[in-house]
Write a structure and sequence with these properties.
Blueprint: E1 7-10, E2 16-20, E3 28-29, E4 35-36, H1 38-43, H2 51-66, H3 78-90, E5 95-99, H4 105-116, E6 120-124, E7 139-141, H5 145-155, E8 159-164, H6 170-179, E9 180-188, H7 195-207, E10 212-215, E11 222-223, E12 229-230, E13 235-239, H8 240-243, H9 250-261, H10 264-281
Parallel strand pairs: 5-6, 5-8, 6-7, 8-9
Antiparallel strand pairs: 1-2, 3-4, 9-13, 10-13, 11-12
């Protein structure tokens, strides 16, 4: 599947370094100096045991939006949702932002991951399909990405993980440079399946200031024991400071966690979830 596809190995300086006739694994360097591929990263993840619960949440949400008469056409696959889940958990992301909610499939799974880290998920779309569960704690902004980011700039914490499922305009890219953490992880949907995916990567290469490295989907989804598969068409960007093994110091980590944890909107979401759970137990 998709084994014959022109792929450029890009860094975020806009330079096309090589052109391959077939998809190739892009390696990356971990703290111990070993070179890992996307597949090796997934297989070495310490969070694989959580994927069963993530799959259950994905299927539960599919049942939820289909009960509303929504088809979920063009929504993110389970395989790509699981890739996002592992990235958020591995890099301990606390403030997740999504461009392109659609029926909320990725928002729900990313929210499952970021809640485990003590953070929150914000998603935006100019069309409201009414598919975000009201008790999920997900913040939905019914607006285009630039307007959503402008709103977050006023009252939200810095973003350390972004999933782009739509082509951003120049206003969005300008705000991303202002609001995204310098060590933010970026993920792009439909890379290799739709020109949209490559267009988003190209724009980020040209206009996103932090430097780092892109990792592209492999020739086939990564198969795991138990039948789960991970990643069909998600490309992701890791900034140089994470690639080079430079992690947050204890003060930076504490500041980021407190910023997310003590944010008024996060506290309100937590209180709302607690109230809903209390009512359900009555």
């Amino acid at each position: 599947m998709h084994t014959r596809f022109p792929l450029r190995h890009r860094r975020c300086d806009g330079l096309a370094q090589a052109r391959y006739k077939t998809r190739r694994t892009v390696g990356w360097r971990m703290d111990n100096g070993a070179i890992f591929s996307c597949g090796a990263f997934v297989n070495a993840s310490t969070h694989l045991s959580e994927l069963s619960a993530a799959q259950t949440a994905w299927r539960r949400h599919v049942a939820f939006f289909t009960s509303k008469g929504l088809s979920g056409e063009s929504s993110t696959s389970l395989e790509d949702c699981l890739m996002l889940y592992l990235l958020i958990r591995h890099f301990d992301r606390r403030s997740v932002f999504e461009i392109g909610t659609n029926v909320g499939t990725t928002a729900v799974i990313m929210n499952e991951a970021v809640k485990q880290n003590g953070g929150m998920c914000t998603t935006c779309d100019p069309i409201d399909y009414g598919a975000i569960p009201p008790d999920s704690g997900i913040r939905f902004i019914n607006a285009p990405a630039d307007a959503a980011l402008a709103h977050i700039k006023e009252d939200g914490p810095a973003i350390d993980f972004a999933f782009l499922d739509w082509v951003p305009d120049w206003k969005t890219l300008r705000l991303a440079n202002d609001l995204f953490d310098k060590d933010a992880i970026l993920a792009v949907h439909d890379y290799g399946l739709d020109p949209k995916g490559e267009a988003v990567v190209d724009l980020l290469n040209l206009h996103y200031r932090p430097r780092g490295r892109w990792f592209f989907p492999e020739a086939a989804p990564i198969a795991l024991a138990g039948g789960a598969r991970v990643n069909i068409c998600t490309a992701f960007f890791v900034p140089n400071q994470l690639l080079n093994g430079r992690h947050e110091n204890s003060f930076e980590r504490l500041r980021r966690r407190l910023s997310a944890l003590l944010h008024p909107r996060h506290l309100a979401s937590h209180l709302k979830r607690a109230a809903v759970q209390k009512i359900r137990r009555m």
